[in-house]
Design a protein that fits this description.
Strand content: under 5%
Structural class: mainly alpha
Helix content: over 70%
Number of strands: 0
Shape: elongated
Number of helices: 3
Order of helices and strands: HHH
Oligomer: single chain
Length: 139
């Protein structure tokens, strides 16, 4: 009789334990859903702010580029006037300024080409392809 009482007691304890765990589990799942929703809403809000900031940066950069272009054109005109006042012909002064612009463009192109080495993402591509860094072979 003691064995049957002990078995009945254990069964009732199991039922009580499973019943008492169910509300806790439901509450935990509910909290997790709320937390995931909050994280997604935060990510969406931050992304929206980041996009708005990038649009403002782009607009200001375009305005800055236009302003710098007008400054460069003004300085170029002053350079032509200065060279013509020194006794150079107008054509020669314009040619000197064109040569200066070509040299400036060449320097800027070299700077941009050197920056392409940082855009290559060789390490990332190698790690994503699954090839060990030392075993890259050219085909």
């Amino acid at each position: 009789m003691i064995e049957s009482d002990r078995a009945n007691l254990m069964d009732s304890e199991r039922e009580t334990a499973s019943v008492s765990l169910l509300p806790g589990l439901k509450a935990l799942v509910h909290e997790m859903v709320l937390m995931v929703r909050d994280h997604i809403q935060l990510a969406v809000a931050e992304t929206r702010l980041a996009v708005q900031a990038l649009v403002v940066i782009l607009v200001v950069a375009i305005m800055l580029a236009v302003t710098l272009l007008t400054i460069w054109l003004g300085l170029s005109a002053l350079g032509v006037l200065y060279l013509s006042n020194l006794g150079f012909g107008l054509g020669t002064a314009i040619f000197c300024l064109i040569a200066l612009n070509i040299v400036t463009v060449g320097i800027l192109v070299l700077v941009i080409r050197r920056q392409f080495t940082f855009i290559n993402l060789e390490t990332t591509i190698t790690s994503l392809s699954g090839t060990p860094p030392g075993n890259t072979t050219e085909k």
